[in-house]
Write a structure and sequence with these properties.
It is built from 13 helices and 14 strands. It has 295 residues and is α+β, with helices and mostly antiparallel strands. It binds flavin-adenine dinucleotide (FAD). Flavin-adenine dinucleotide (FAD) binds next to β2, α2, α6, α7 and β10.
Length: 295
């Protein structure tokens, strides 16, 4: 590994200054992507800015008004084990659960996963179907944008010189909202998604779908929102026929490639199968159980 300068800022201002002063510096969170690439000399940053000691960087908290806050140092494992993430943001918690091994999940951050911008990033579909926003700090102040717009292509995000991601904010879901994520991999663990699908649905008290989110991983240069499939569900009762129709449309919306891991045709078919399953799972999670209704 090439020698590099190491910065561990204690304030956002110091972090922005370090990044602005060293234009080729890279941000370090858990290092599970960055350090591997530095070791392999794919990345040779002259300086590294560690964001794990910034105020609120380890904050994973929920408030009814603002929703879920995920700080820059929050690990996959924290999200996987968080009861509020599991109960209100199922697709995000389940996405975190799939990443690597427990050792990797103890280091890897959710924000690192998003900044790394792999089309197969396991937390991205869940964050996108929950309309999560990244909070960015930089020399010109702060700005926010959706995770969907932030991820620009394989390894590319929207950050400009001197900027980094401070946190992710996920709005509080409406009542009777459920979500779920699953991926297909040839191996059960320590593999990356051949296809990943996140889905969310919100139901009216009478069981009509009032909002839907479907996001497809690893079948386009970015995690892809299947908007045509979503629109098939909205305003409808989620009957098996409607769900199957939406899943078929989602598989048409996917833009998969053939590579060493799977053919485009296989990926398209997996999108159909997994989308159908995830809409059903999201819909079950959105439906109050008898005991909850009685309480
Ligand atoms: C063995 C192994 C298995 C893996 N399995 C999976 C898997 O199953 N699914 C999956 O999705 N990923 C997997 N990964 C990839 C990796 O663990 C994730 O992408 C992880 O979430 C990255 O987070 P990190 O904190 O380690 O990021 P880092 O490695 O620290 O950073 C990743 C990138 O994001 C940038 N970055 C990080 N934080 C910020 C920030 N706050 N602001 C601006 N830029 C930032 C860095 O500069 C770097 O370019 C695996 C990796 C390994 C080594």
């Amino acid at each position: 590994m090439q020698a590099f300068e190491y910065f561990q800022p204690k304030t956002v201002r110091e972090a922005v200054q370090a990044l602005h002063k060293h234009p080729k510096a890279m941000v370090l969170a858990g290092g599970t992507d960055l350090l591997v690439r530095m070791k392999d000399r794919v990345n040779r940053p002259p300086a590294v800015v560690d964001v794990k000691r910034l105020p609120r960087s380890d904050d994973l908290s929920y408030a009814g008004k603002t929703g879920l806050h995920i700080g820059a140092a929050v690990s996959m494992r924290q999200v996987e084990l968080s009861s509020v993430a599991q109960s209100r943001f199922g697709a995000i918690a389940q996405g975190a659960t799939f990443v690597g091994s427990i050792q990797i999940r103890n280091r890897a951050t959710v924000i690192g996963n998003v900044c790394n911008a792999a089309p197969s990033a396991d937390t991205a579909p869940g964050l996108i179907v929950h309309d999560a926003k990244v909070q960015i700090a930089g020399p010109k102040g702060r700005r926010t944008m959706t995770v969907e717009d932030f991820m620009k292509g394989p390894g590319k995000n929207d950050l400009k010189r001197g900027e980094f991601v401070l946190g992710i904010q996920v709005p509080a879901p409406k009542p009777r909202t459920g979500s779920a994520y699953v991926r297909h991999t040839p191996r059960e663990a320590m593999d990356i998604a051949v296809v990943g699908v996140g889905a969310s649905v919100t139901l009216s008290p009478k069981g009509i779908c009032t909002a839907a989110g479907i996001c497809l991983g690893a079948v386009a240069p970015v995690p892809l929102r299947a908007t045509k499939a979503e629109s098939i569900l909205v305003g409808q009762k989620l009957t098996p026929g409607k769900i199957a129709q939406a899943a078929l449309v989602a598989s048409d919306e996917a833009r998969p490639i053939t590579d060493v891991r799977a053919t485009a045709g296989f990926r398209r078919e997996m999108v159909r199968v997994l989308t159908e399953r995830m809409i059903k799972a999201a819909s079950r999670a959105a439906t109050p159980t008898r005991s909850r209704r009685a309480a």
